[in-house]
Structure formats: C-alpha cells, structure tokens
Amino acid sequence: MTGKMAASARSVLSFSARNTGRISGQHFVLVTKCLCSTTAAARPLSAQQLAEKLRAKKEELKSKEREVPKDPIQRRVQELKRYTQQLQNVHPNVLSKALKRGILHQDKNIVVINKPYGLPVHGGPGVKSCITDILPVLAKMLYGNKAEPLHLCHRLDKETTGVMVLARDKEMAHQVQELFKTRQVAKKYWAICVGVPVHSAGMIDIPLIEKEVQGQQQHHKMTLAPSYRMENGKTMKIRPNRHAHVAVTQYQVLSSSLSCAFLELQPITGVKHQLRVHLAFGLGCPVLGDHKYSDWNKLAPQKLSSGILKKLSLEKAKTRHLPLHLHAQQLILPPLGSERQELNLVCKLPHFFVHSLSRLGLKFPEKD
After folding, report:
1. Running DSSP on this structure, what letter comes out for residue 282?
2. Residue 241 phi/psi, 5° resolution?
3. Which entry of 157, 169, 205, 368 is annotated as an active-site residue?
4. Could you tell me if 332 and 342 are in contact, meaning their C-beta atoms sit under 8 angstroms apart?
5. DSSP code of 310?
6. What is the structure's pLDDT at 128?
7. What's the mean pLDDT in 78-104?
8. 260-267 and 248-256 strand pairing
9. Phi and psi for 216 in degrees, rounded to 5?
C-alpha cells in the first residue's frame, strides 16, 4: 500500500513538472515574441525597407496624378504640368526632333524655332534640359555631323513661348545680337492680363531695377524705379537710380472683358522681365499665370477672382499650375549678311493660350 502511494505521488509530481515546464515554456515564448516585436518597432528601418516605403508613396502619388479630371480645362492644366516635367527628362535627340518639326524659318544665316512652354534657354540648378544643351544636336540634324553648333541670339523666359532666333555661326550671332542691342529689331508680344488697363493704348516709360524682397522667402525681383514722384498733386522729377535700366513698352488693348484683357505689347528696350513688371506694377494688370510678379512681397500662386476661375473652370487649389500667357508673336529683322529684304518672323499662339482666350470671352485679332 505504501509502495502504491509512493508511485502515485511520483506520477503526480512528474505530471506537474511536465505541465509546469510546458506552461513556463509557452509563457517564455509569448514574452520573447512581445519583446522581439517591441524591439523591431523601435529598430530603424533598413535601407531596403525605406526604399520600399518611399516607392509605395511615389506609386500612391502617381496614381492620384493619373486620375483624369472631367473638366477639359483641368485636363489641359494637368497636361501642361506633365509636359513641363517631361521636357526636363526628355533625351536631347527627342527634344531636337520636336524643335526641328516646329521650325518657323531656315536659311544660310539663321534658324528660327517655336520655343515651347516650360523649356529654359540656359541651364541652372535643377535644370536637366535646356535649349543651349541641344544646339549641337539640332545643328547636326539640320546640316550633318560636321556642322558647327547653332548659337543663341537672344533669350526668352522659361515660361514664354514663341519666336526664337538661332544663328548658324558666331559671326552671324554677333550681328543679330547687335541688332537687338541697338533696338533695330521690331518685337511684338501677345499677352492675357488680369484686369483691364485704364487707357486702351499707351506707353510705359519707367526704369527697372532688381531688388531683394525681404520676408519668409528671401528672393530677388525686378521692380519699378521711377525718376519722378507725386508731391502736393504735382509730378516732381527726382534723381534716377544709377543701377536702374531704361525700360519702355508700348501696349494696345486688342480685346477686353470685365475682368481681363488681351494685349499687344511692343518692347522698345529689352530689360529682364520688362513686360511682366510693366504690366504688373506699371498698369496694375499682371500677366495671367504670372506667379512671380502678381505679388511683390511673396512667391505664391496668382490670386484670381471667382469669376475668372469659373470661366476657366479652374479650382483655386490648381491655380499654381496655370501657365504664363505671354507669347513672342512676331520679330522683324533688318536684312542680314548679303540679304536685301527684312525678315518678318511670325509664330502662332499655343493651344492653351487660344483656349483661354475663348473661355474668357476675348476676341482673337483679325489678320492683317
């Protein structure tokens, strides 16, 4: 009897030990898992995990961008944004072919191209593609592999479209540059401006100067440097700023509505951002889509009235993508080299500009 009880006690103790060990083991595993998961959460992501996370975010943004807006204007704004981004990543050969297809004039002295929107003339920080970089490629496409690179004769802003002259050689480039410098080239621009000038035609003769804008975003802008001031209702002449540049612009209103106007501009001088500054600060009618000169104190998307936004079917949040509506429509060059006739170079408006004219109720000028 005593032996049976002892055997029973040993089996019970053995069972308890086995189960206690199993339970303790399970508890240890659970605690280990919790500690591991906590450690994993605190541990920084590996390079691969971080790359996958960033890739997922990019894909999410791309999927949002791929969503096609229902409104045609919104679709066009999206297309222009995408086109500008693509221009910065396109191969020089592809870009050269596109410019070749849009050549406006070509002879033994010059090549005249239709500069597209969003393509800068010169390189700089963040610029992957520019016109100067593709001049050698374009020359080879036009005149063979041994051709000398084409040369710039003048410049246009990145956002400005229209007529742009390139020279076949350095000597011709210098000659055309002198014509621009001595104001022998007649220039005509078309622009849509926000607001309507008080006078339907006139001349803006106000010098310009570059100044630093103080604030959260310190930057430089061109601004007016008038050589007069108003005093007791009289115009008083003052000493001109020695750093200011003489700037003269003729303008004429071709068509207008209650909120905007279609202008023809003839710059007599060629100062940096002259047309944009004269319209914004001289007339108080900034160019539509000019996000730099619509406000002096800050760099921000242009503020548009609800009426203009409605006509353009544009959301307020999408205003930043509205392109600059400034187009180099015509250049008239005096005879070059041995030529005896002047060159009348004309470039039609881009599609987005024509579409905006229609939506804003502005009439296209009749052909001469």
Report:
1. I
2. -70, 130
3. 157
4. yes
5. H
6. 76
7. 77
8. antiparallel
9. -65, -40
137-156 burial, b if ≥16 CB within 10 A, otherwise e?
A: bbbbbeeeeeeebbbbbbbb
Centre a 10 Å sphere on the Cβ of residue 116 and count the other Cβ atoms it contains.
18
* Beta-carbon count within 10 A of 13 CB: 10
Q: Which of 39-43, 219-223, 327-331 has the lowest mean pLDDT?
A: 39-43
Contacts of 67 (CB under 8 A, 6+ apart): none
Q: Determine whether 205 is an active site residue.
A: no
DSSP state of 287: B
- Please answer whether residues 332 and 186 qualify as being in contact, where contact means their C-beta atoms are separated by less than 8 angstroms: yes
Contacts of 226 (CB under 8 A, 6+ apart): 206, 207, 238
Is-contact 276 295, C-beta < 8 A? no
C-beta separation of 173 from 151 below 8 A? yes
Structure tokens, 122: 């010169």
Amino acid of residue 342: E
| H or E element in which residue 82 lies | helix 72-87
Instruction: Please check whether residue 193 is in contact with residue 353, taking contact to mean a CB–CB distance below 8 angstroms.
Output: no
